[in-house]
Amino acid sequence: MSLVTVAGKAIRPANMELARILKKCISGNVIPMNKEFPLKKMEQIELSITGLTHAGEGVGRYRGLAVFVPETAPGDTVLAEVLEWKKNYARARLLAVKKPSPGRRPPRCARFSACGGCRLQHVDYAEQLHLKTGLVKDSLARIGGLSGVAVRDTAGMDNPWHYRNKVVLQVGERGGRYRLGFYAGDSHNLVPIFQDGPGGCLLVDRDLNEVAKVIENLLNKYGHGAPGGINDWKRHKPFFRHVVLRKGFFTGEIMVVLVTGGGQWPGEKAFTGELLSQRSGLTSVVRNINDGPAGVILGRENRLLAGRKCITDRLDHLTFRISPASFYQVNPVQTLVLYRQALDYAALTGRETVVDAYSGVGTIALFLARRAKKVYGLEVVPGAVGDARLNAVLNGIDNAEFHPGAVEERLPALAACGLRPDVVVLDPPRRGCGREALEAVVKMGVPRVVYVSCDPGTLARDLGYLAGKGYRVEEVQPVDMFPWTQHVECVVYLAWGLPVSR
What we know:
Elements lengths: L3 E3 L2 E3 L4 H12 L16 E9 L5 E5 L2 E5 L7 E9 L3 E11 L12 H4 L9 H18 L23 E9 L2 E7 L6 E3 L13 H17 L17 E8 L6 E7 L7 H11 L5 E6 L11 E7 L3 E5 L2 E5 L9 H15 L6 E5 L5 H7 L4 E6 L2 H13 L5 E5 L2 H10 L6 E4 L8 H10 L3 E6 L2 H13 L2 E9 L9 E8 L6
Parallel strand pairs: 5-7, 12-13, 17-18, 17-20, 18-19, 20-21
Antiparallel strand pairs: 1-2, 3-4, 3-6, 4-5, 6-7, 8-9, 8-11, 9-10, 11-12, 13-14, 15-16, 21-23, 22-23
Helix pairs in contact: 3-11, 4-5, 9-10
């Protein structure tokens, strides 16, 4: 049996399999030569936090191994307990902050640790903005191979609380009562928002918090006769699944969507009547029927219980129609910051043809239409295309067209037909753009591209591809759409070929 050196000592493993494992670990730097085993499960370690991950976790190094610790901040010195370790990293939980970072602050929410929605509520807001700028720069360099790109400071909010105009609440059971709340991270454990501490969510609009409290009380008054009932909660698929609340920030209109299973609910009429009597300003009350899998929020059928089918909101000079399933940015204040920056990067003069890829309900397309000659919106969700067309009519805009279909199919087809737009706006979901869409942009030789991203990682990947095909990344503007969370959106200006003046 051959000898293996661990921590400077030659040892003879009991069998060949153990020798093979030890050699593999040593070669992978999990057990560095002439060093001790890095970590053991349940081991308590002191750690200096030096960075932040894209998941909002603090990261430090222990004997060369990266250790991720939630609820820590760069600059903290902490005591942590190891939960697990892998080849290249370990995970630990925070036991104590031995020396706090200058950027650390006490969380305002009593449910901060349990809920996990506000990953950065323990970090000063100005420091959050600085960290998010760093996350964007890191992604561009590490994933996209783009160093030296002009990244502006993250645009933050004057008042970063109660900014959300939409919330999806889970309905659960606690102590024989219906409770509204959020699931804790990576689980289906309900964290009630009207129990143990100040009621409501600090990120959600105050009016929506008040409506949610009324709904919770009324579910406990009129919900017990529903199919299954609260006593059968653990044995049956629950009848009451979610409560979706939406508000028009500039109009004040409020929509309530109660997501339930199918079947008759004897208390439906009484529930609706008392809800309207307690919150007389409600614009729309809808019951959505969803008997599908747990991961899907809304079903296909909407039953109007009171008021209108939709609410409206204004965004700058435009009015938008919002249905239960409509995509609409949840932070209206920062949406204007985001869209105005996109408009500035597009540099429209009224003579341009614009393609808005992943156009949703047409918010960006219609925002640009007043300055463009023609705008084409491409969107895979048929319902969103229908909403976009209605929004165009609602605003008297006749130079915007919206076409259904996957961007990865429609954009190459337009390129093959000879369309050569002056500006393309890319506003993909978190997964980023499909390669076919990026190839079509390159084939068209679009002079100016505006990329609106909700994920720095996929943004960096796509920008790296475009840069390799002849585009210059001129400027990146991060925008804090979701204060106190790890998320950051970006608007990017890319130009084709040689430098152009703006």
